[in-house]
Amino acid sequence: MSVSIENFVKTIYALNERAVAKTSTIADELKISNAAVTDMAKKLCKKEYVNYEKYKSLSLTKKGKKLALSVIRKHRLWELFLYTTFDFSLEEIHYEAELLEHQTSNFLLEKMDAFLNYPKFDPHGDPIPDVNGKITVIENMISLSDASENKVYTIIRLNSSNVAFFEICRGNEITIQQEIVVLKNYIDFIEIKYRNKIIVLPKDIAKYIEIILT
User: Looking at beta carbons, which pairs linking 192-196 to residues 24 or more positions away fall under 8 Å?
Assistant: First the structure.
């Protein structure tokens, strides 16, 4: 399977998880023209990977979803491997995993999965599809920006691909599985306590940190 096809179905899957996969949004994500998106959609519709109708958002067929989850599985396992084995930072692992995911055989993938002890989540807190494409879902996650005061939460997901966001997380030792106390939730900022320190985060940063009540 070509890199362009794998990236195309992976992008549709990711966009449909958040909202809908519009032609213009896919074009922005992949940095290609709207016409190129339409051409690829028609091509993959004939191969039964994509559901395509003119002027409508794109979705994946069962076959297309299986391919997308396979690519995502490779990507997230590589992210965890690089993070835990070579001490890559959160902002570094994504780029390297993007390259490696397309060159990884299923044989190597399953060896890596076993080496990592069959993890369910990557270092960002994103779920890793298992060998059958099943994903572990955590219920009742909310954004830190919506948290209630004087409650104890656990950070579950750092839901961003922005380099500056991860630099802020690293500088403040914000990681998944970190327990925090929300002290104050202001209009534009949120004040939290953890590891015996207190920090104030802008809501524009806090909205990408997903948490659950501890």
Answer: 192/144
